[in-house]
Amino acid sequence: MSTAATLTHEHDAHDDHHHNPGFWQKWVFSTDHKMIGIQYGTTGLVFLFFGFCLMMIMRWQLAHPGAPVPVIGSLLQSIFGSSAFAADAHGVRGVLTPDGYNSFGAMHGTIMVFFGIVPVAFAAFGNFVVPLQIGAPDMTFPRINMASFWCFFISCIFMVASFFVDGGAAKSGWTSYPPLSGISDAGHIFLNGQTLWGSGMVFNITASLLGSVNFIATIIQLRAPGMTWMRLPFFVWAQFVTAFLLVLAFPPLEAAAVMQLMDRAFHTSFFMPTGLVVAGHITHWSGGGSPILWQHLFWFLAHPEVYVLILPGIGMVAEIIANNTRKPLYGYKAMVGAIFVLGFLSFIVWAHHMYMTGMGARVAGFFQTTTIIISIPSVILVTALLLSLWGGSIRFTVPMLFATAFLPMFGIGGLTGIPLAFNAVDLYLHDTYYIIGHFHYVVAPGTIFAIFAGVYYWYPKATGRMLNDTLGRIHFFLSLIFINCIFFPMFLQGMAGVHRRWYDGGASYPQLITPVIHWNNFMSVAAFLLGLAQLPFIFNFCWSLFAGRKVPNDNPWDATTLEWDTPTPPPHGNFIKEIRVHRGPYEYSVPGAVKDFTPQSEAPEVDRPPGAASATPVVAHAH
Amino acid sequence: MSDSHNHGKEVSPGTEPAHKPHDMHLGLYLGVGGFLICATILTVYLSYVDFGSRKANIIVAMIVATVKVGFVAAIFMHLKGEKWTIWKFLLFTMFFVAGLFFLTLLHTSDPIFGTTHNTH
Amino acid sequence: MQIPYEVTARPDTGLYNAKLGIWLFLASEVMLFGGLFSAYIFLRLGAEDGYWPHGLLNVPVGAGNTIILIGSSVTVVLAWASLKMRKFMQYKIWMGISILCGIAFLVVKLAYEWPQKFEHFGAFIKKDALSKYEGYLGNAHLKEKGLDPRVEVSGHLHEVEINVDSAQKDKLDAFLEANDLTMSPEAEGAKLLVVEHKSEEGKPREGMSPGVAEDLEAVPGVKVIAFRLGLDPVNAEPMNPESDKPHFWYKNPTDIPGRVEREDVESYSAFVPKHSPYFAVYFTITGLHGLHVLAGVLIMIYFWLPIAGGSNMFKRNPEHLANRVEVVGLFWHFVDLVWIFVFPIFYLL
Fold it and tell me: Looking at chain C, which runs of residues are DSSP E strands?
């Protein structure tokens, strides 16, 4: 059923403003999915940078406990206040206090996960690319899409504001475990770090729900004619499953956040146990609550959340690998099956984050089993991508560099997770730097590399200009080296027993950590250099907007998927001609075709009567 | 939300009734509504009947509630006539809610030291 | 630029966009309330014997509210059916009734049920003092019958006995003035003072609000000695077999006096969220549910009013309006559905 047929009578939708939108409607309160994607993307990238800076300050403290942050220490103290920074014995300002370290740590985690990766990988790329890739004019609910961004923006304001209230930002970990999170930052009933964190999370979750409903509805309802499920680009499948994870897993955390806010504001005892004693005094809670309940509700989301963090990245890498090997993905069907199994299983593995809570053998056994099983679809995905490289004509464009690096990096992250599935091993490694190394490998050289790949890949479509190639390669190689320098030693430290969240890097435990303490300085230097390595990228991103090489045509990568069928950048409504899909998403190097790629929308040749010569000459290739 | 550009198409869509009255199951809706009100009264009554243990009363009340919810979902929310798409989402949702309940409870009932009611 | 399938259904899914959207949203709401219900189960199973109350809520009122909500569910689907049959006046009537029922539900809850709770005082007795209050608790009798012990003395707070440090008496006086309270005896050097609400001519004396009692305790120099209550029937007659389990008709606190000493009290408050995990989860779930009822009512009002996006749409595109009403109807049925579980779980079990 073509789009045109439904056009006739359905005017009372929303098109009033598309004729001539003013400044506010075009750039700020836009309902166009591309603009919303860019809004999510820029906000998310800013937060990724902010979270990175928080980490750099923490890493300074780890390498030089008690030393004031050089150069900017005094400025930091003025900005963040005296709960986070203090003067040292000589009166030099800018020493990160333990409370400050905890708050930076908690906020680094929260910001990177909920305000950096998810908005960029899921919301930004998803919003921009998915409707284009399925041949749709926009998302099914453009106004809800806009509402979702602004709801997200409100949550950003809460989170940033939390740094500047009395007592500083939330400091009970990104996991916000009670009872600490119930009692900490007591002061003003609302304007305190922990309550602002909880309120920000409620808005963030609401924004996420509004967005994911939109994604699922769009992918189901607005596929162009001929775009069957098995002709979808793998990126769309990845976003589809991710959206489901968000829709179903986030609400229990929203419920839990509401309950924690009730605990803080109305002194309920959802999570506060009976007889709680703080600083030698019995507290006034009625008691009867359970801290473990929070952990269950939190991890019920947070486990699927980690798949939310990785799946869009895998989707982007799949697109880029197919495009730059000039051949179809290996095992497309297996990958689709694997991603569904992964999504399904991700809901029943969560307590592997809770092996330390005194669970018995039966329940621990259940979760160990499901956790080991879930490694299978992950391996299928990575193996299929790896095998997709075999026999390809690989072009190492900058996106391809990031995409191929993603594979071993994600591999390390995934493989280091397997021992953690077993509670016997996890009891030793839980809350050590091994865990930090494991999850950072998956997310940092994993998803963030995939995000970089996606930026370099789709930037030309969004802006009409290419990013500078040389700067891109410098960005890649330096990032690859330094990111490994930061995170690999974490496994060594973790296995030696160094805990996460020690603000002095373990200096208080010399008997434990002397063999591995020298890595702190090494990692901190690497973090700083990694930061420097991002400068070429930031410069490239901004400079190329005005002075980058213009794209030679609408399809600079010679890709097959539908987003390259639009003008560059795509107009409101996306496609200027009617779109009909005739073939699968990765018809590269089809035998007998003229070019080494056949776009999805290209019609098949008209059937010829038997005996007639083929109209398409077989082009002889140089060998 | 104004509709300023009706491009000269006179006929509004769907001015003709989409369904004839006998298609619209009006009697069915009123009947189910009456059934639900009776079921509510039944729920209240049964809660004062001693079924042996508190647990048994809970099970009885939940069964009645589930039946009521089934009717609301099937008849009022038209699930009975829907295509498979919606059912698929709901089935998964139910499975995951059940997982949330039971696995959380499994944790409480299987603590490492063999005692029950560990939360106090 | 037109989004396809806004009004007409896509053939392979049989859905128009908004219907799919609302079902997905409802799936997320199932998980939201599921999270809250799992909290309820977890907290109730983890509660010590006697610490999970029963029979504190008004069953006839709750049942009435349930029936109101079920009725509104029926009328909203009839409103949708009227639109499908293009019967405009019928639509307005059925939709109007749905809106009124929704408002009635909220009024009953917010103007009657909740305020009644906020004035109801409860004090949990310390474990080692339970035997001292056997007269109000009747635990020996309950133990014989194999029932859970009682650990709380509740009712209406009438007076509070206090001592005050004479040097800081002015702060107390200011507090009494500000809260419409009096104190007796006023005799000089009196050690024990009784604070109560000012009585007006010809009117029965009002009790004290439990929240005021908490504030009184926080006044510098004040030491609360005891609470004087008008006891709840279960505390007034703990041995009466009628008190062993909850009954249908709600029993208000009596005028039978009871006295509880502050040092025997573990914690006290009104029947507010912080009172116990039971009330915490009750107020949170019914509060969140109430917000959903409010949202539904507001949207239904929007579709009822003679505005372009509301009932005026009937002339231009009745099918679109029918779809909108169907979508809000689905949301409304979900709200009703949640209440069908909430009512027995909190009011009856």
Answer: 121-125, 152-164, 181-184, 193-197, 222-231, 257-261, 265-270
Q: What Å distances lie between residue C252 and B47, C55, C246, CA to CA?
A: 21, 12, 13
Q: Is C71 on the interface with B (CB under 8 A)?
A: yes
Can you give A496-547 as a three-state secondary structure string? HCCECCCCCCCCCCHHHHCCCCHHHHHHHHHHHHHHHHCHHHHHHHHHHHHH
Return the bridge partners of C10, or none: C15
Please state whether B3 falls in left (phi above 0), alpha (psi between -120 and 50) or beta.
beta
What would the pLDDT profile of A434-463 be if each residue is shown by its tens digit? 999 999 999 999 999 999 999 999 999 999
Residue B4 pLDDT exceeds 50: no
* C249, C270, C291 - which closes a domain: C270
- Predicted local distance difference test score (pLDDT) of residue A219: 97
How many structural domains are present in chain C? Answer: 2
Cβ within 8 Å, pair B89-C23: yes
- Report the percentage of chain B scoring pLDDT > 70: 72
Beta bridge partners, C230, equal: C156, C257
Q: Under a CB-based contact definition with an 8 Å cutoff, are residues A298 and A271 in contact?
A: no
DSSP conformation class of C206: P
> Pick from A239, A211, A208, A94: which is nearest to A143 by CA?
A211
Q: To which H or E segment does residue A371 belong?
A: helix A361-389
pTM of the model: 0.91
Which of C36, C47, C316 is the closest to A288 by Cβ? C47
Report d(CA A336, CA A306) in Å as an integer. 19
Residue ranges, chain C, pLDDT below 70:
185-192, 199-205
Examine residue C1 and state whether it is found in any structural domain, yes or no: no
B114: DSSP letter: S
Structure-token match 């591995």, residue found: A516
Give the model's pLDDT for residue A286: 86
CA-only gyration radius of chain C, Å:
26
| Contact status, residue A155 vs residue A197, Cβ threshold 8 Å | no
- Do C207 and C308 share a structural domain? no
Mean pLDDT for B113-120 is 50
Chain C residues 243-272 with a CB less than 8 Å from chain A: 267, 269, 272
Res C329: pLDDT: 96
A29-547, CATH topology level: Cytochrome C Oxidase; Chain A (1.20.210)
> Hey, where are the domains in chain A?
29-547
- Residue C298 and residue C252 in one domain: no
Tokens of C192: 């024990």
| Phi/psi at C179 (5° precision) | -110, 15
In a domain, C8, yes or no: no
Residue C81 lies in a domain: yes
Q: Which of A373, A385, A388 is CA-nearest to residue A409?
A: A385
CA gap A139, A31 in Å, rounded: 9
Domain shared by C56 and C149, yes or no: no
Query: Does the residue C198 lie in any domain?
Result: yes
Residue C30, amino acid: V
Reported ipTM: the value is 0.93
Task: Please list the rounded mean pLDDT of every run of 10 residues in chain A (623 residues).
Answer: 40 50 83 95 96 96 93 92 91 93 96 97 97 96 96 97 93 94 88 95 96 97 95 97 96 95 93 91 87 94 96 97 96 96 95 91 93 96 96 95 97 95 94 96 96 97 96 97 97 93 88 89 96 96 95 94 93 90 92 89 68 46 42
Q: Which of A12, A212, A221 faces C5 most closely, judged by CB atoms?
A: A221
Of A10, A213, A262, the CB nearest to C273: A262
Q: Is C178 in CB contact (< 8 Å) with chain A? A: no
Identify the bridge partners of residue C223 per DSSP, sorted by sequence position: C163
Q: What is the pLDDT of residue B8?
A: 39
Whether residue B83 has pLDDT greater than 80: no
Which residues, numbered 561 to 620 in chain A, qualify as contacts with chain C under a Cβ-Cβ cut-off of 8 Å?
572-573
